[in-house]
Amino acid sequence: xxHNSSGEKRKLEPVLDPVARAIADAPVDDEPDTEEERKxxxxxxxxxxQRRGQGxxxxxxxxxxxxxxxxxxx
Length: 74
Hints:
Layout: E1 2-3, E2 9-10, H1 13-16, H2 18-25, H3 35-50, H4 58-64, H5 69-72
Antiparallel strand pairs: 1-2
């Protein structure tokens, strides 16, 4: 972080990274959620609750795709 002349903090990342800048400049999503979106969020929260707040490991995600860590190491 740097301080400008008025002492306000601002992050350098959005200035230096074009993707971060695009995200920072993107308009706010003000469209109401659809029922499908609300259901997807509720389903994902239930999935995490069933797993005591834990996701799945990288290895498990790869296995779901039929891959191993050795397959993706470069």
